[in-house]
Amino acid sequence: MGHEQTHAAPVLALDGITKTFPGVKALDGVTLELYPGQVTALIGENGAGKSTVVKTLTGIYQPDGGRILVDGQEVRFPTAQDASAAGVTAIHQETVLFDELSVAENIFLGHAPKGRLGLIDRNAMRVKAQDILDGIGAEIDAAVRLKDLGIASRHLVAIARALSVEARVVIMDEPTAALSRKEIEELYELVEKLKAQGKAILFISHKFDEIFRIADRYTVFRDGQYIGAGEMADITEADLVKMMVGRSVDQIFPKRAAQIGEDVLIVAGYSHPTEFEDIHFTLRRGEILGFYGLVGAGRSEFMQSLIGVTRPSKGAIRLNDKVQVIRSPADAIAAGIVYVPEDRGKQGAILDMPIFQNVTLPSLPRLSKNGFTQMAEEFALTRRYTERLDLRAASLDTTVGSLSGGNQQKVVIAKWLATQPTVIILDEPTKGIDIGSKAAVHDFMSELASEGLSVIMVSSEIPEILGMSDRVIVMREGRMVAELEGDELTPETLVRHAAGISSKGEAA
Amino acid sequence: MTQLKSREAILVGAILLLLALVASRFPGFVTPSNLLAVFTDTAPLIILALGQMVVILTRSIDLSVAANLALTGMVCALINVSFPGVPVPVLVALALGLGALMGAINGFLVWKLTIPPIVVTLGTMTIFRGIIFLLTDGSWVNSHQMSAAFKAFPRETIFGLPILGWIAVIVTLILGLVMSRTTLGRAFFAVGGNPHAAVYTGINVGRTQFLSFVISGMLAGLTGYLWVARYAVAFVDIAGGFELDVVAACVIGGVSIAGGIATVGGAVLGALFLGIIKNALPVIDVSPFWQLAISGAAIIIAVTFNSRAGRSKGRVILKSAEHAQ
């Protein structure tokens, strides 16, 4: 669509770019064209390959195949400096800036104007930095330290830094994720200014309202593949959503029809001063309840509060018809609610500890007598769950750090199952693992549910949510926006609710 | 774990080599009676290193142990001067309690006010020394002011080993039991190994660190009485700078400054290694400068071992991070 438009030639183009990681094809022959004075929106689900494209464009990743073209000439970006020298600059989701340095120093770090003797010309630097800041309408003094600025101003500094290298292509990766409504408006104005200066802008966002508001063109990726591109004026939201999610959900999800039983967990009015508000639902025996939403919708924050890592300001829970007050993770474990965190590398296993000690850690209060651990019982419990998960290790006494990644995952799962929970919360259970392991995890979840365990699954992957869940709660900006079941569960409805689009296809 | 055990074997080898070198110059050093004397002399370092090991294991550090020792020792000496009739077991209990209280102050500041441990204990180190000065106006409590029973307790020998040495043995055994067989010991390893993961398993990270400071303080207090009684003198500056020897013993013993890795055996061996250097080198006419240089070199070699182990682990983590992309 729309390739043969009467545009000027693209400033930057990707042609058939492929990038493979062990077990994952992150980009599979993708095409992308960026034109001067135009905003191109890159649209796709999590895992579609957007971040990989950004890293390829900025010289952080080297493609395995395909060409990068600048003004029609093939180029290579072996390092980030090369990309920068070619005029490609990115403002990342979490821009790296330095709190203790001044705004001017942040803007010119690495390419500061030099005076005599090769020393940094601080005056020239400050004047130039102020020029750039004034140019983008930022009311920021270049001499103040970065740590005295708010988050929106920091963003403007990041943009000023991008412009200080004479950028021709500006990549904005989820630039509005952390901004307030007013700051977002200011960002839009800035984007308009950059357009007027003839910069080519790649705008990555999950929010359809802003894509329709500021983008001129779109490119859609799905599962690392190029799906289509064209003018925003020629497409509707409904069609865009279809392109984005339009895969058949008939991938092999081994969801077994589970016997859904009585109510197990009732959550009422759970609220937090800053993270989420009025979360309420009922979870039944043998049920898998999906929590869908964009990154930052407050799902993980709610789960952490449910298990006592943070305290809710309001709300109550009943578990098996008993009111439970959970003040700490220890309370949650004792009550029978466990949480398998998203970042299993950082929050999962204790690598320097032996397998059996990792597995029994949350069960120790039950396993110990008068504060003394019971070796034999610890090994028996560990053996039971590691055998069930088919964990391969020379001995249960070896450290978890010496195991392969997949086996480390199994240790983490065994650890939680060994507490014999009533409710298990899995946060992004298959994030970053290969297809084969994904299937194993899904199979296992299904098995747990069929044995009568109640499962809450937080996931940002639509096929996983649709394939595994009996019911789905969609969260957006800290609130429950939908509870979907049966025929209501389609990719389109999920994306609509999560991105805040009304059912008529208008931006909300 | 296997790596740790091999590190302890290396340390045992280093100690034997050191003893052999000293024996070739001065055979009298390795007679059983002298080795027992060296062990007894190193006992305070061993006891303090065991306390420090628990603190460092949980990603903290306690720089106030020597000041705690001096203050507790002074309080015991003053009580002995004013009330010579107070029996030694009561004094020992008092020393344990007072030391634990000072440790609890450190632990409380780290836990509830989340001040970095190095800052907290630098502050309390100075405060504890200052309190001794306030108590005494800088004057000394000397041998002739102390009762005979007070001074005799650590020196009394049972089966040829003075009580001071036996106490080091008993503390080692107790700590060995706590670290390997109790839920508290397990919590220390978990908090140091990965505090983020420990939280989810129901461990209270701050409370665990608090308890590590209480243990360290309690052992410092115990050592305070033993030290003052053994040397039969108490003043503001006793054991000045000793906290650095204690930390050094831990580091040489393979306790990871980054937390999560430590063994009781390692801490004891680290203390013994330093103790032997201090006792042996003067005997074979090595100048004080070289004694310091050799201790320093031992610390750097030990840290190099630690960071090597940490680096190879880092590579694995990076690989999985890339995989997750």
UniProtKB/TrEMBL annotation, chain A:
Please classify the protein's predominant subcellular localization into one broad category: membrane
Q: Which domain of life does the UniProt lineage start with?
A: Bacteria
The segment(s) forming the ABC transporter domain are 12-248, 260-502
One term under GO cellular component: plasma membrane
Q: Which compartments does it reside in?
A: Cell membrane
Give the way it sits in the membrane: Peripheral membrane protein
GO MF annotation list:
ATP binding; ATP hydrolysis activity
Record-linked SUPFAM superfamilies: P-loop containing nucleoside triphosphate hydrolases
Q: What is this protein called?
A: Rhamnose ABC transporter ATP-binding protein
Q: Which organism is it from?
A: Celeribacter halophilus
UniProtKB/TrEMBL annotation, chain B:
Give GO MF terms, alphabetically: transmembrane transporter activity
| Listed transmembrane segments | 35-58, 65-83, 89-111, 118-138, 158-177, 209-232, 244-277, 289-305
Name the GO cellular-component terms: plasma membrane
Membrane topology label? Multi-pass membrane protein
What UniProt keywords are attached to this protein's entry? Cell membrane, Membrane, Transmembrane, Transmembrane helix
A Pfam family (short name) is BPD_transp_2
- Spell out the subcellular localization from the entry: Cell membrane
Q: What name has this protein been given in UniProt? A: Rhamnose ABC transporter membrane protein
Origin species = Celeribacter halophilus
